[in-house]
Each structure stands twice: as structure tokens, then as C-alpha cells.
Amino acid sequence: MSVRRLLITGPPRCGKTTTIQRLATELGHHCTGFITREISKDGIRTGFVAKSLSGGVESILAHTGLTSAYRVGKYGVDIVSFERLLLDEFNNLNGKLVIIDEIGKMELYSAKFRRLISELWATEHLVIATILKRPHPFCDVLKSDQRTLVIDLSQGVQQTINERIRNIASQMAVSLVR
User: Which of 14, 74, 81, 86 supports an S-S bond with 10, CB 3.0-4.6 Å?
Assistant: First the structure.
């Protein structure tokens, strides 16, 4: 069985977002999804913004100054804003490679996000995503799917791993045009 899902994992700040962002740029119009970027002030991380690959929507995912019932460490999580991005970006997946940065604690607070991910895993859609490294019941199911390849960025030489990821992603993109 061929790889339908490529999950990139590793500890915080190991290069997961940089890797998936490069892939999204290289694969261009064949992709839909979102990239999460840090918000910094004076060199200190204060939050995260999720930006759709179509360029239409950007939303604050989490911020230190955000009051929310949903929290990860010092960050309040804005589920409503994040779900608006999901609705806009994932309304038409036909013929697209799905890029998700990230399947992590903040995003998993959203029931709509968990449902979207579950639906993607139940179909033949091609998915490249970053995912938290630590055990998590929802993520562990995704990682154990037989059509899923998990690559840990903390396990080896970065250049070799990135080349392997790029080759797999290219093969996945080629299968879209067949």
C-alpha cells in the first residue's frame, strides 16, 4: 500500500514548520491547507497565527494576551477564529494535496478540526502534516494508520531527512496529476 499521509514530527523548534512551508511553496497550486507561524515581540514568542495557503484567511490561533477557556501553557487559544479559517480553506479538496501545520494541542481543542482530520484519514486524500511528538490518543491513531509514514526531524541529519521528505512529497504530488 502506498503512502497517503506523511506526518512530520519532532520537538518544538526543530524545523517542522520550515520544512512543511518549503514543501507548500515547491508544490504551489496543488495544495490547500494552512501554515502556523510564530508571533514575536522583541524576540519573545507571544503567540501563533494560522495562515491559509490560498492566502484568503489569516487568524490568530493563540496569544499570551488572549482570554480563553482553552489554554496551552501561557497561550489562550482562539477556536472561533481558527474554525473560520478551516471553513474557508477546506471547502473544496478535489485534486489537492492537503498541507496542515500542525496537528497539535491548540488545534485539537477544535471539534471541527478533529472531525476534518478524521474525515481526511477516512478517505484517500493525500496529506502532509506536522504533528506533535508526544503521545496523544487522537494523534496516536493517525500515526498508526497503515497508509501513514511518520518522519521524526530529531532522528538524523537534517539535510538527509529534508531530502527524503521532499522526495516523498514529490511522489505524492505526481500521483495527483495521474
Answer: 14
